[in-house]
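Reply to dn_fold:

You asked what the input looked like. This is it:
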Amino acid sequence: MEYRYLGDSGLKVSEITYGNWLTHASQVENDAAIACVRAALDVGISTFDTADVYANTGAETVLGEALKGERRQSLEIATKVFGPTGPKGHNDTGLSRKHILESIDGSLERLQTDYVDLYQAHRYDHETPLEETMQAFADVVRQGKVLYVGVSEWTAEQLRAGHALAKDLGFQLISNQPQYSALWRVIEGEVVPTSEELGISQIVWSPIAQGVLTGKYQPGQPLPEGSRATDDKGGAKMIERFMNDEVLTAVQELKPIADELSLSMAQLAVAWVLQNQNVASAIIGASRPEQVHDNAGAAGVTIPAELMSRIDDALGSVVERDPAKTNDSSPKTREA
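and this is what came back:
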């Protein structure tokens, strides 16, 4: 495993982050989830990402149990706040001071820790003044409950405003967590250049495009039984944007490139996002320990420029690059 600094900070994270978005307390039984966490630790993954909204707080609880007994100082635990939790009442969502201060205490209890290394605004809150949000983050940092602050799926303009306020309040905004893969490159035009200027790293989710870049979905063929594309708990909806023959046919063109590098298709996909120097870590999810071992093989891989160009040529027009897609990811009104 290789490790990279997160933004302009002294914090290092593993190039591969273990995340439990659609798995723990949802698609995967607890014993299997814990086995995947053990596998992550075995391959040198030290960074673990979750959120209070995942499985309505259940994912944090499972992760806390899985990491219990580990040396806390050897881990980087990240969680997020924004989405509706609990009974999903009118103040159980968003980035208000009330929700942030209450949510961090709940997350710490579920994760069985006194602090989180990285606390992230899961989306941008259009209905709460940014000054209120950033002041609340400053306060939880000063209380010692949070070491570093990040965000997720913020636009370049939002990052710039948040970064300026954080600086005024005496703390750093060091990371952004966007979707990023060889098929989904919407951050490259605006978010990445702005982040590089501000000293903000990306911790990217869905580097294998919900499994599409593994090549297991064949154009014109039935969906593999038990795959994410057949999951009615949320997986199928997330993957549907890629499930067309044009995309699936293009993805099959990556197989010879992976073979040339002696990588699996999944390893190629994860290694591809890590070629971007603004990416500090790629988040992987898993339902089986062997998936963790496979994806971790992408750490430390260098893809030659000629093969990066061949990947671009193979995927061609199926790549999504529209920067406006980032703005679309944050709801304009609260759900509750």
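The first strand starts at residue 3 and ends at 5.
Hope that clears it up.
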